[in-house]
Design brief:
It contains eight helices and eight strands; from the N terminus they run H-H-H-E-H-H-E-E-H-E-E-E-E-E-H-H. It is an alpha+beta fold. Helix 2 crosses helix 3. The protein is elongated.
Length: 241
Amino acid sequence: MGGIGAGASVGGTGAGASAGWDGGAGSTTWCPSDLPDAQELAATPRADTNVELLALRFSNGVVADQAIYDRLSRDLTLITDQDSSVSDIHYFPPSDGKGLLLQTDSQTASEMQAGTYTAWNCLNDAYGLQNTIISVGSVPFVELELEGIYDIERVAKQYAALPGIKSASSNIGGGDGPTICVVRKDDAWHYVFDRASGDCLAGCYEHEYTHFTVSTNGTVSALGALSAADAKLYASREVCR
């Protein structure tokens, strides 16, 4: 994966110097110590990016855990093979896992536009920078599109530690819609397919739930509609969004 000025680097004493970045005295490297390893980075994007985004909810790193992705992929396939009526419902993620919005100071934005800002090269190279939009107006900002699917909040913190970066956040998010809610238990994982509707841009207010469990050995149990009590356990906003 390549990035702008891949391989170049720069020294500095900005936020990154105290944010867990590698490099000793005289170092010109701006690579975070918690950067995923090469094997993890090579694994993304996976074949089903929607399931990958769902897997990130239960993963502890920047990249989705492979075992969790595999379990979700298997279970969701088993469910939709058994009941095709929910096959059009997919997870509604909080972000697309690849878009970043950076707010910068004016000098940094100008250097980025000129191609002379090299502090971000390590991150751009690792995460496979695909596209960049740079605005050097009165409120400078930069939009980045990365190659893989990542826990974008963790990645944003890494970019925010770079010199000249005022803030970093997901570039795409918000809204509401149909989704898949997952609660993991030792004996089985619970899946609630929420066919949400009703002014979903502001927040869906109608919900039609269909509940399944899938055991460790792959046995699917169709539990039908949710009771009000079960909805609090398996379809709360904290669980589903």
